[in-house]
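Possible race condition, two jobs.
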Amino acid sequence: MNNMLTIDGNEAVANVAYRVSEVIAIYPITPSSGMGELSDEWAAQGKTNVWGCVPRVVELQSEGGAAGTVHGALQAGSLATTFTASQGLLLMIPNMYKIAGELTPTVFHVAARALATHALSIFGDHSDVMATRGTGFALLASNSVQEAQDMAAIASASTLAGRLPVLHFFDGFRTSHEVAKITSVDDDVLRKMLPQALIATQRQRSLSPEHPVLRGTSQNPDVFFQAREAQNPWFDAFPGIVQQVMDDFGAATGRRYQLFDYVGAPDAERVIILMGSGAETVQETVEHMNRQGEKVGLLKVRLYRPWAPDALLAALPVTTKAIAVLDRCKEPGADGEPLFKDVLVSLAENAASESPRFATLPKVIGGRYGLASKEFNPAMVFAVFSGLTAALPKRRFTVGINDDVTHLSLPYDPAFRTDAVRETFGAVFYGLGSDGTVSANKNSIKIIGDETDLYAQGYFVYDSKKSGAMTVSHLRFGPQPIRSTYLTGEGDAKFIACHQPLFLETHDLLAHAAPGAVFLLNTPVPADKVWASLPGVMQQQMVAKRIHFHVIDA
């Protein structure tokens, strides 16, 4: 397992982007900052890319400046990239229209984050990515830390082969900051995916007095429309190019991807369609329900733009009767969110064609979930599948909140669990921001991930404050890859640690503890007096759950 790494999503992406770039323009914005910081650090250390050169890393005055720098570097024939999120991505949109309009290869790596509306949020959803749908950039989604690394490589190869710039996105915090054990991509694979012939072609398209060309013109009504439509062949061909790159990547690494990946019963009647980290939770739930005899499935969207309706339809089982499309964004005033409408149009047009895939058009409903990193767990997935069994399901719904205003939310049973809870070892650590708890847990995950055969996952919950607020670290370990992209549920953790005794009076620290769990308390109170110092409610919980209690003064 020498090619295994225990890293977070930002590092997984930066590790690929750095090695296949010559110019990297950066400007920090949460939760994408880690990618730029690592690139800057590696360049300062003299770390080379796969061609033996140290990339030029430049920090600009804003995200708009970073995008402009990338645009300029591309015009000079360089391989350039940038990293951003949220409001930063919005500042890049003007340059994105130009880059795509000029059919210039590049990859923007985005840790997808909520946009500021009624309030600012640093947490993850797809609002920012959806704002770029009209730019002409291809949109490629990753669902996990492993996929974030792999799709970074696939995006880099696809953009060179197909000349469409790619926005590669993954969920802010849930993927960007999750620490997981993954299989790395080595330099030889990357060099093979980016052949010198394609790089030479990029060089030849550069602005140079050796082969002058005119760009950035102002066109009148006599030619603009025709020139705009003349790009259609590149967009039409791009899904096939991405699939070929995915196939080549699969042959080289053993990890195979499709534009639309289906998981579940081959004769499924109910299917959920979505993209991003939520797909991991849905897959875990689908596999659990399949073992219970339920005919359910999941369709993961990987290439969102250009939209490939034929690939979508081919991936859906012909037995499908009901579909729920989940969007991690809100488009106020629209009759549905973007992914929902794309799926609906594809199904409707196919039903009206000469060779419809389905004898009866499946009923399709659309829902919103996970805005600003709102929790999305198997209980909510089960509620969506249950909703599809109704004769008249809610056509538009939300899940994960209690909507007592417009009453769109689906009820769910918090007690629902999948088999993954029993198959993994879960631990929860309580600390204060800047007290070292999160850093120590990251080290623990990396040690266990690197030195054992176990898979590891770490996710860290904290608010927007820089320090002094409560942090909750959720760790999981198990013999199989971990798809649980949600927080540890109540009664599921086999180990609980509290690093700050002040939480004993203010928080229910044992709510997550499973029966027979271990509770480790860091406290200056002498061991023979600790029990008496605990709140009575906690003493009762420890007795009822048969908790193994340990104390340390650290």
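Job #2 (started ~2 s after job #1):
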Amino acid sequence: LAMHWGNEHTQSFLALKTALLSEPVLKSPKFDGTPFIITSDGSKDRFRAVLMQRVTTTLPSGKTVVCSH
């Protein structure tokens, strides 16, 4: 199976990279008593874990958004 990497693939990769490195994806942890959430997964080959916190934000429209970072 041959693979061809073109300009559209590069643009998609760069857009994904920007999205993954932009807020609200990455945020500094809050050490104000906000609980941390640890999610883990493992198999015979790998183990991974994610340390998160839930953040509640009120938008200018009045809607409340809860995100995990």
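Residues 2 and 9 are 15 Å apart (CA to CA).
Logs attached separately.
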